Amino acid sequence: MEAFASIRAALSLPLAPIQYIVSWPTTFIDNLKSVISTHDDLINENLSLKAEQLLLRSQLQRLIAIESENNYLKALLQSSRQVKGKTLIAELLAVDFEPFVNQVILNKGSRDGVYIGQPVLDATGIMGQIVQVGPITSRLLLINDPHSGIAVQDARNGIRAIAVGDTYSGKLKLMYVPNTADIRVDDIFLSSGLGDHYPEGYPVGRVISVNKDPARQFAEVYIQPSAHLDSSRQVLLIWYQKNA
Amino acid sequence: MHSFFAILTTVIIAIILALLPMPDWTIWLRPAWVLMVLIYWAMMTPYQVSVGIAWITGLIMDLLNGTLLGEHALAYTIVIYFVSKMHIRLRMYPMLQQGISIFVFVTLYLFIIYCIQGFIGELPASQLYWLSAVTSMLLWPWLFVLMRDCRRWFKLA
Question: Does B69 reach chain A within 8 Å, measured CB to CB?
């Protein structure tokens, strides 16, 4: 199996030009749009972005204080864990696959230090992990793929579970949750960091349905991923080292 | 040499068409471009395009799609085997009958992919999956004319 993986990685380089050619029209239209958008539009967009940045900065200030306090408390508990790491913004190549494939291609590869198993986020949550790295491209397995699993934790009461992808709905499903577990609709699930793959505390999704059928051994809990799995264009690669 | 170049160009264009981003509502309507081009060449030049080329093209599709390695290769190989078996009959058919055979071939291809996806537990989310055979059939006459012109342009027999 590992030999196959390396063959795939090696062959991704000669095939990358096709992917770039396919995604070229989309980038071209995007560029065209930005060229012909008027000066006024740009000024307006700039103003709104500045306002948003101000807002985010103010929130960040609060977060920095909380984070330092948190680190201090963790240090007291002697369970310090590095939260910050190197990050890199990657762009999705506009390549469509067959509709049953939950993967996307990123325009960063081993040249930029991307590694297999690397967690990928977008602005709103966890998107997935890298499953194949070529020299100039890499392949991202989305969290709603049935081969993907992520250790999650309820933000409200800390119930831990594993969320795997569900092909039929494009959502996530919690595995092996007892019928008695206190999980309600609209609960937010965060990554728990237990699987060692994903960093701790990033949003994974929101519960959309809980079905507790007494005839079944486990409850059926579906989660709507909070990351925009099918509309994000830019994603964040993070270098996550667990040194707990 | 001419023919090799023509086949390569058309197959690459078909691969690009198969990967080109499309609006969301068309995801289940995308015709099996690569398979259709392979069928055309296997029908018209059975001594140049046959099972081997189909297998290599299928492997490339697997690598690009990220599906199980060999999945498309197997499906293309089986379909192209039947096409080259009966290429003379297919050439004689009127357009309507040809379209219907394309429908059967593409359905066979979709069925093989569907089975393999079933084995690995990643079935397509919707039964609209089979619509691809219908769009392939409807697009076949245009593709046929286009490919015929292309073949004349490259001055192939």
Answer: yes
- A110 & A209 share domain: no
User: How far is B108 from A45, CA to CA, in rounded Å?
Assistant: 51
- Structural domain count, chain B: 1
**Nearest of A129, A108, A114, A106 to residue A196 by alpha carbon:** A129
Which of chain A's residues have a Cβ under 8 Å away from the Cβ of B65? Answer: 97-98, 101
3-state helix, strand, coil in chain A (%, to 5): 30, 30, 40
CA distance B57 to chain A (A): 12
In a domain, A108, yes or no: yes
Q: What is the pLDDT of residue A199?
A: 85
Chain B residues near residue A30 by CB distance under 8 angstroms: none
* H-only helix segments in chain A: 2-36, 39-76
Domain assignment of residue A51, yes or no: no
Query: Sign of dihedral through CA atoms A233, A203, A193, A195?
Result: negative
| Cα A24 from Cα A141, distance rounded (Å) | 22
Whether A99 and A218 map to the same domain: the answer is no
Q: How far apart are CA B75 and CA B82, in angstroms?
A: 11
Q: Into how many domains does chain A fold? A: 2
Q: Is the pTM of the predicted complex or chain greater than 0.90? A: no
State the ipTM, two decimals: 0.78
Domain that holds residue A178: 149-225
Residue A48 lies in a domain: no
Would residue A159 count as lying in a domain?
yes
| Residue pointed to by tokens 């864990």 | A81
Give the CA radius of gyration of chain A: 20
What pLDDT does residue A14 have?
85
